[in-house]
Specification:
Layout: H1 2-21, H2 24-39, H3 43-54, H4 62-76, E1 82-94, E2 98-102, E3 108-110, E4 112-114, E5 126-133, H5 136-141, H6 144-147, E6 151-154, H7 167-183, E7 188-192, E8 220-223, H8 225-236, E9 242-247, E10 250-264, E11 269-279, H9 289-307, E12 315-322, H10 330-339, E13 346-351, E14 359-365, H11 371-381, E15 387-388, H12 400-403, E16 409-414, H13 419-422, H14 435-453
Parallel strand pairs: 5-6, 6-7, 7-8, 11-12, 11-13, 14-15
Antiparallel strand pairs: 1-10, 2-3, 2-9, 4-8, 5-9, 10-12, 14-16
Helix pairs in contact: 1-11, 2-14, 3-9, 9-14, 11-14
The structure holds zinc ion (ZN).
GO cellular component, one term: lysosome
Keywords: Carboxypeptidase, Endoplasmic reticulum, Glycoprotein, Golgi apparatus, Hydrolase, Lysosome, Metal-binding, Metalloprotease, Protease, Secreted, Signal, Zinc, Zymogen
GO biological process, one term: proteolysis
Length: about 475
């Protein structure tokens, strides 16, 4: 009996904590927003319009400017209290000719794409022997004599994962490979695409690039996974393999793009800001749908539905569509430079930048007192299939600069099992978006945004949350 009494006390105490976090009316609004979004939302129409009218939005391109104009117009049509632009300036880079061909008795073309901010090969391309490495560490361990004058080929494969945790370990071949190859005197580098598909789409992405202009890189490209398999087989035949590689990208002038920002002013604490964000730019190879047109649509549709309520959230909800994420979080860094001193007023932030897969987990980096609030928010996401997750979060790539200053962040963690089949390829098109999954994302973001903006407890942004 004593045990039963204790159990009843624990259960009722637990219930009391849950019930006291938000008011009944706040919870009812969250549930109405959630359930209506699961029926249908305008998110698909938003991503369709952006990626059809504007197309690819490579930082510094004409599409970048069109994207900023599109976003400004779309947000201004939505009744925000304020819409504005903040400048982000960087040197540009444009893709050119990109071909690879095996020479000799097995002569054949390979599908290849230039990595972002790679230098060009000499005009007409280069011809050199291929030297294959299992991964970046193997290249680092090699002597300069093994590498000098050759085309380095890093063959490491990326494992498939739901949470995307396998991307980080694989991507160093792309970011650091061109740097290490240059240190050892290589002529160029080709890597297996950082990809989980076996398609003949090559995946681009950024190399490690110093914006002060001090770079020592070799021309760098990614092979489609199927072509990386083919090149491996050719190397494994045991005879020297020679490649002709022609990459003709060009560095260009400085360009100023913009973060596009819009506020729904809070009714009680307007100076405290809940950031919901995505990035507006994309790579040049596709219309940038999964990366990150869908993120733009998810946060815009979330804001639109909050604007449709009669009641305003207590805190300000700020939509940020970041510029130049793909080439090094440049928009996010510009935002942190301008607003970093007000980190304590940035109540919490998050970015949707992992495709359109369903949200399955809510992770949060908040002070201990706020964890019951996160648990209460996750409780309202349960009907969406979302579980309470980890007591830490990254917040999404563009949240990292503010997170490093101590801003509280959450992850609405998405199922990314298939995200890296399409990421940074020609194949990132609207055809890959599932409307139902997209609506589920909007539903989860509505629950999070509405409740976080009305939280009775501070999430702890400031010095104590500095990682
Ligand atoms: Zn992205």
């Amino acid at each position: 009996m004593r045990f039963l009494g204790l159990l009843v006390w624990v259960l009722s105490a637990g219930f009391a904590v849950q019930a006291s976090v938000f008011t009944q009316s706040q919870l009812e609004t969250a549930r109405e927003l959630r359930d209506a979004a699961m029926q249908e939302t305008g998110a698909f129409e938003i991503v369709k319009d952006l990626t059809t009218r504007v197309g690819p939005r490579m930082p510094g391109s004409e599409g970048d400017a069109r994207g900023v104009a599109w976003a400004k117009d779309a947000l201004e049509a939505m009744n925000f209290d304020r819409v504005w632009l903040e400048p982000v300036t960087f040197p540009t880079w444009t893709r050119g000719v990109e071909t690879a061909r095996v020479l000799g008795d097995s002569s054949q073309p390979l599908v290849v794409t230039t990595l972002g901010y790679s230098p060009a090969t000499p005009a007409g391309g280069i011809e050199a022997q291929v030297v294959m490495f299992d991964n970046l560490a193997a290249l680092e361990a090699a002597s300069a004599d093994e590498v000098r004058g050759k085309i380095v080929f890093i063959r490491n494969e990326m494992e498939r994962s739901k949470d995307g945790s396998t991307y980080g370990p694989a991507v160093s071949a792309r970011s650091m490979g061109p740097v290490v190859a240059a240190e050892k005197g290589a002529a160029a580098i080709v890597i297996r695409s950082i990809s989980t598909s076996e398609h003949r789409f090559a995946h681009t992405g950024m190399v490690r690039y110093n914006w002060d202009g001090d770079n020592n890189l070799v021309p760098a490209a990614a092979l489609a996974n199927a072509d990386a398999n083919q090149l491996e087989r050719l190397v494994n035949l045991g005879e020297p393999v020679y490649l002709h590689l022609d990459l003709q990208p060009r560095y260009g002038d400085m360009y100023t793009s913009h973060n596009v920002i819009a506020d729904i002013k809070g009714s009680e604490k307007p100076e405290e800001v809940v950031i919901i964000s995505a990035h507006l730019d994309s790579w040049d190879l596709s219309p940038g749908v999964l990366d990150d047109g869908v993120g733009v649509a998810i946060v815009m549709e979330t804001a639109k539905r909050l604007l449709g309520l009669e009641e305003r959230p207590k805190r300000t909800v700020r939509v940020i569509l970041f510029a130049a994420e793909e080439i090094g979080l440049l928009g996010a860094r510009a935002y942190a430079e301008k607003h970093g001193e007000q980190v304590a007023q940035h109540f919490v932030g998050s970015e949707s930048d992992f495709g359109a897969g369903r949200v399955y987990q809510l992770n949060a980096r908040v002070q201990d007192d706020a964890w019951p609030v996160i648990a209460a928010i996750a409780e309202e996401m349960k009907p969406l299939g979302v579980e309470l997750g980890e007591r830490d979060a990254r917040g999404g790539p563009d949240m990292l600069p503010m997170r490093s200053l101590g801003m509280s962040v959450v992850d609405l963690a998405q199922d990314g099992t298939y995200y890296f089949d399409y990421h940074h390829t020609m194949n990132d098109t609207l055809d890959q978006v599932d409307r139902t999954d997209l609506n589920q994302n909007v539903a989860a973001w509505l629950v999070f945004t509405w409740l976080a903006a009305n939280s009775p407890v501070d999430f702890g942004s400031g010095a104590n949350l500095i990682p």
